[in-house]
Amino acid sequence: MLQNTDANTDLAVRSLDAICVNESRLEHKWYHNLKYLVVGIFFGIVFVKAEVISWYRIQEMFRLQSFHMYGIIGSAVITGMISVWLIKKFNVKTIYGELIRISPKAFNKGQIYGGLMFGLGWAMTGACPGPLFAQIGTGATVVGVTLLSAIAGTWVYGRIREKLPH
Predict the structure, then answer these.
(1) pLDDT recorded at residue 23
(2) 3 pLDDT exceeds 50?
(3) Average pLDDT value for residue range 13-31
(4) How far apart are CA 108 and CA 147, in angstroms?
(5) Which residues of 42-73 are buried (b: 16+ CB within 10 A; e: fewer)?
(6) What is the pLDDT of residues 97-146, one digit of tens each?
(7) Are 51 and 57 contacting, i.e. CB atoms less than 8 angstroms apart?
(8) Largest CB tally within 10 Å, which of 54, 62, 100, 123?
(9) Helices marked H in 126-163 — which ranges?
(10) Inter-residue contact 126 to 58 (CB < 8 Å)
């Protein structure tokens, strides 16, 4: 049982969120982050080649006209499930030896509301946060409006987070 100290209370609250639980305490030089840029560019190329960023493919998915996107999303979910299982089973640590903690998450009605809002925005704009930058990179600069809307939505959520059902 957690003691009622500030540090333990903070950890207990943070473990309910999907943020900050595995926050690294290591500090690296700025160029250490270039690997993320390389992986991001590679990921964007894969998105373009797999047509994940195609507005038409996304509309086909929401109209139940094609299995393409469901297959990609389904394979990502299965890969994620296997990865989390392996991390838990073998107590995998980060490349720097830090422990990876996966806290159990309780289901709540806010997840339904958030999922519906996310899906509605995805269907209306033809973009979810993952491929936004890849879409902009291919020249679909109008997606900049979607990016700014996503940033604004994140800001609003941060401002009213404490008043929402969690």
Answers:
(1) 66
(2) no
(3) 65
(4) 27
(5) ebbeebbeeebbbeebbebbeeeeeebbeebe
(6) 888 888 787 888 888 888 898 888 888 887 888 788 888 888 888 889 99
(7) yes
(8) 54
(9) 132-137, 143-160
(10) yes
